[in-house]
Amino acid sequence: MTQLYQFLSISAILISQISGAPRLDGNQLSQFLAVQNRASGGNIWNDQLSQAEKNMILQQHNSYRSQCALGKFANKPGAGLGPYLPRAAKMPELKWDKNLEASAYRHAMKKEFKHSTDLKNTGENLYMMWTTGAFNRQNIIKDMSQAWINEVPQYGLDSIILPSGQKFYNVGHATAMLSDRTTRIGCAMVGMAPGKVLGVCHYSPIGNIFNSAIYATGATGSQCPAPSKLNPQTGLCVYP
C-alpha cells in the first residue's frame, strides 16, 4: 500500500517563559510516562522513546552540528552566507537530558499543536505528521529532524545573526538545532488522532535569540570553553 506522509512544524520559541518545569530523576520520569501511557490506552507513541530512538535523535542533531562546525553544511545557493555555513568556533556536542525529555512529554500529552507557555530558558520545536499507512517509528523520527534542518538549504541564511519576522519563521527550527548556546536536548512523540503523530523537542539553554549570532564563527573548535575539549573528527566541543 502506498503511504502518504505529510508534516507540519512550528518554529522554536524565542524568549524565556514564566516558569521552569519540575525536575524529574530517571525513576520519576519512567513512572510519569507509565501513568500517561496507561491513561491513554497504550497508544504507540505514548510510551517512552527507546534508548535507540533517543540515540537516533541525538545523533542526527550532532551530525548536523558537526557538519556546521566543520564548514560542510550546505546553504541555499545564492544565500548571503555563501554556499556553506561558516565554521563554528565553539559548537557543543549535545547531550540527552531526562528533564527536558519529561517536559517535552508533558507538553506532547496535551496533544495540541501549540507552543508551551511555561518554559524557562528553554527552546521548543514542534512537529506533526500524518500517514495513510502504518507507522514506522524510525522513519518518523528521521523525518522530524530532517524536516527542521532542511530549512537552511530550502530558505537559506544570509547572516549569522538570527533573522526576525518571516525570515525567522522560515529557518527557526534549524537555527534552534545549530545554536552554540544549547548543550542539552530532550524529545517526545505521542499519537494524536489515528494516523497522526506529534513530536516535541526541548532545547536548553535556549538558542534562538533575536539580534544575536546563531553561533560563533571562526576556526573549528578554536574557542571551545573549559572544561570542554575539541573532538577533531566532529569539530564539536565535548563536555565531560
UniProtKB/TrEMBL annotation:
Domain SCP: residue ranges: 52-211
Source organism superkingdom: Eukaryota
Segments passing through the bilayer: none
Protein name per its UniProtKB record: SCP domain-containing protein
